[in-house]
Structure formats: structure tokens, C-alpha cells
Amino acid sequence: ESSNELVQNVVADFGTIDILVNNAGITKDGALKRMTEEQWDMVISVNLKSVFNLTKAVQPVMWKKGAGSVINVSSVVGVSGNANQCNYSASKAGIIGFTKSAAKEMGIRNIRHNAIAPGFLVSAQNYKLLFNEDGTPTARSAKILSGTPMGRFVDSSELLGATLFLCD
């Protein structure tokens, strides 16, 4: 209901919607054997169900107009998986599958769907995972970087640049 209300308000204020960027993401990390159903449901709801809700709400506006762009932010973890992140990995992999299917449904009306699956981005969400309290990299951070072709984390400006490119 809140997704539909949001879309109605945006259309009332601006007349239409050209672009939707779905960028919600939370983590509730833990080993699968200790993960609660509540942790699973919360991550799936915020990360994946929100993509469904907002895309479905904006579809009639873009369909009527015969144009639009939907950009869904996934994660490299949705492609490769990650220990202690079964819920997060599943949600981000689901975004990729959702995007491919929505593109096939709505492409006939010139509504593009793209997913971006960036590598590890230093954010408030994962700072504690990557750095110690004194700012030095954690052992996990070093392991992540060793498997990264460029040997560094993604800069937020790179994610922004890719998103803006897909909006055009």
C-alpha cells in the first residue's frame, strides 16, 4: 500500500515517473544453522520484496507512457554467495532473476530493467565487517580484497556513475 501511495504522490507532484532505482539493502548476517526465520524474512522483505512492490506500483505509469527505466541494485554476493549471508545472498540473487524476467515482460513497452551487482562497497552497513575500530582492515577485509581483481573496494561514485548511465 505504501508503495502505491508513494507512486501516486510522485505522479501528483511531477506528472510522471521516468526512472525507478531500487537500492534498499539490509543485512542480518549469521550462520545458516543459527539464522532465525525472522532474520531471513526481514532481509528478504527489505531487499527483495521492496523491489517487487515498487516495480509493480510504478509499472502502470511507465506502461501507459511507453517508456521508463528501472535500475535494481543487487550485489556481487548475489552472484557468488558468501558465508554467513544466506539470506542476503538469496535476496540479491532474487533481484537479478526478477530483473531479467521484468525486462522480458516490460521491454515491449520500452521499459528497461537493469541490475547492478557491485563488489564490496564500503558503507555504514558493512564498515564493521571490513575495518577494526582503529580503522585498520580486518582479516575478512584482506580476504575479500585478495579475491578482487582490482584489489580495492568499490567507491560509491562508481556505483552512482553506473546508475546514472543506465538512467539515460
Précis, in short:
This protein has 7 helices and 3 strands; from the N terminus they run αβαβααβααα. The protein has 168 residues and is mostly helical. α2 runs parallel beside α4.
Taking all residues together, what is the mean pLDDT? 93
The outline comes out as globular
Kindly provide the radius of gyration, computed on alpha-carbon positions and rounded to a whole number of angstroms. 17 Å
Strand-and-helix sequence, N→C? HEHEHHEHHH
* Low-pLDDT residue spans: none
What profile does the largest beta sheet have? 3 strands, parallel
Helix and strand content put the structural class at mainly alpha
By DSSP, the count of extended strands is: 3
- Percent of residues in helices: 40-55%
Gap from first CA to last CA: 29 Å
Percent of residues in beta strands: 5-15%
Strand order of the largest sheet: 1-2-3
Task: Figure out the total of helices.
Answer: 7
Could you explain how this protein is built, in words?
This protein is mostly helical and 168 residues long. Helices cover 55% and strands 10% of the residues. It has helices at residues 2-14, 37-65, 76-80, 86-106, 127-130, 139-146, 156-167, and strands at residues 19-22, 68-73, 111-116. A 3-stranded parallel sheet has the order 1-2-3, sandwiched between helices. Helix 2 runs parallel beside helix 4. The longest helix is centred in the N-terminal third of the chain and has 29 residues, at 37-65. It starts with a helix and ends with a helix. The model has no long low-confidence stretch (mean pLDDT 93).
